[in-house]
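Collaborator request, handled under Task 6.
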Amino acid sequence: MTVSSTSNIEITLWHTWALTVTHEACEYTEWKFNAEKTGGDPVIPSPNLDTDLVMACDQLVDCLIKAYKNPIQMQINVARYSKVISPKDTRHNEEREKKLLERCPPGHEGTKLVEIPMTILDASGAIIAWYVPDALTDATQNQSDLEVSASLKGASSEKILKVIVRPAAIATAALRVMHPEQYWAGLRAFSSLGEKAESKELQEMSETFQYWASMFNSLSIISNWETPNH
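Structure tokens returned to the collaborator:
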């Protein structure tokens, strides 16, 4: 399978890869999102997508559209902020944090409880965050019971990767809408890795690519915990 990005760079994906289905789900999600946003014609999903995956994409699009139409603008300038911070800013230097706060104030007062889909815009109008609660269907969240696993290495890796195919595809579809440049960069990276795995006869890597369905190259799971407000 060969796909092309907006920059006309050809990307090769093998038909046996789970990423091929993910890519088609992402295409459908982006086209449907744009159609819903502009009032365009209905979008027909690829016959390669099963009904549950299409329904999951539809629910994601519904949440993305609601978020897109519910923007909250802040006065922080992300471009300016990104230029003044560095990897050395670990939040342990109170004096440094105070100076950063003075130079780049948060752009809001107090806290705001948000319970519906929304986007956060910076002073220039650029979307810097999406909040899309209930973006996953129940079928996507409850495919099997989670088991403790220190890593994806070992005999259980294939089983784990197969179980998370649909959540991975939906997360990647969200990335396609939210940050298309990162999406295409990820696709090119996996294409390049696949070619190198084939040319160097790295069998284990080639086999793993058959089941890897996410455009992200790492996974992080939070189970039975709450994250701090962020």
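The cover message to the collaborator said: "The first helix runs from residue 18 to 38. The radius of gyration is 20 Å. Please let us know whether this matches your experimental observations."
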